[in-house]
Amino acid sequence: MPSHIVHQGECLSSIAKRYGFADPMVLWTDAANKELHDRRGGDANVLYPGDVVFIPERDATAPEAGERKGVLALARETAEASSPTRKLHLILRDAQGQPLAGRAFSLEVGGETLTGTTDAAGALVREIPADAARATLDVDRYRWDLDIAHLNPIANTPDEGYSGIVERLRNLGYIPDPELEPALQAALRALRRFQEDFGLPASGHADDDTRAALEAAHRGEVAPAPREALPEGEGAARAVNVVEALPATPPLCAALVRKARKAGANAVSPGTPSVLRPARKGTCGMCARHEDCLDNDPNVLLAIAEMARRLDGDAAAFLGVIHLATGHTTSPRVRNPGSNAVGLLQLTPGTAAELGTSTEALADMCRIEQIEVAEAYFEARKQACPGADFREVRDVALAVLEPAGLDPAQPILGVSAAICRGPFFDDPGAGRVEISDDMIAYFKAHRKEATGQAIRAQDGQLLGVDEKATYYTAMRGGEEIRVTRRQRAVYKRSSGLDRDGDGFVTRDDHGVTVGDLIAGCAKEACDRARALQAALPQAYQITVPGAAGAAKKA
């Protein structure tokens, strides 16, 4: 039995037309589509991209399908005689929520122009081609561009109904212009306002009662309480404040109660509701060990997006390196027992002191507070190495994991001890001299007798050499390179970055590792942080718009 995967903008009517069925209910009532029918609450008008519609055979011969066979035959005849259509039903209201009743309209769809007048409820009902995807509606001085069949369900979807919720709130006028502010924050405020208008607890959480009310309001079955009249000219921007710039960071931390957080509570702000899915486990082996691995709280992602914008960087890169540095926990309190480093960037006590804080203070901070410290850290790295480009995942990773690598003059950060020769010392008189462990031990024991970096006998023979003055060598690409003790130490702790096994860790290897996380277990949160950053204007001045706005989705 063939099947069809639903794409954005498709509905049951357009799918039925594609496969030669004049009546889409032939598909909807087929037993093979019962699971989809039940998942969509019996509503054939709203499908989600990725839904699978089974297409019944047009010449079904099974005994129990005798009646259906007659329907299919009739469908074929109807399809040949006329082009299938579907019903477009819109309800139009002004900025105060009052119906645009008795208004003349012009609807351009499918190459035709349909005219008419809205009824007393502001409703417009017209038959349109089954496969129409776009339309333009003019009513008085208002114009809307309509996306036909683009409205998503608000239940039983991979995004937990989020896209359908935002689309309905926008259609109902609760999000006057999606470009005015970050979409996720706008959705939270819009949802609370919708709940207030319809007598529901203004939690900002899309519970079952809110979803039901939103569906009913969007179908025009219920209406909100009348709103206060607006001053002349304010139009659709009644809830918009005129501002010149976004705040530096979300003002959440001041409201947090300093007490032990309960297990399972949001680690950032226990009282902050969200229409997004809650924190979840990642999909990699490390993430599976943590209950609160990828925290998708929009306030945290917004803080990272704003930091990335101010640093002219990539929000996904910053979140990816945080994910790696914290061992897949994204916890502001995680500690490294070996170095006493703590927090989102694993700052050591010395580095914390340079930033005007301490590891103890960091461990007491929430994520958003630590993001402010992180911004100061990255800013300091950029000042020390002006060539650093935080739009590159590599440079963000290096700034945290191996800051020396921000200097392009140091392409090799780590070298395996297995391919090194030495140690050597450059003696002014004898040239390169290989140094033994005994000579290093002698220098440590007789340091006070040293002249410079070496201790010599009466005849000038080297007895001891300062270990800090020694170096190693290794061959790479047919050329000999000098290797420092630090490079050997870097390789020892970062050998996993050497994927080709050539014994060298380079500047680019750090970026590859973080890039894997951005495309893997941290992908969902990183994608959201990057999308939030894209929605942030550098600075904006809101002008009061008319009623016409973004495209509505029907």
Automatic annotation (TrEMBL):
Chain coiled-coil ranges: none
Annotated ranges, domain Peptidoglycan binding-like: 167-214
Family annotation (InterPro entries): LysM, LysM_dom_sf, Peptidoglycan-bd-like, PGBD-like_sf
Annotated Gene3D superfamilies: LysM domain
Superkingdom: Bacteria
Entry protein name: Peptidoglycan binding-like domain-containing protein
Lineage start: Bacteria, Pseudomonadati, Myxococcota, Polyangia, Polyangiales
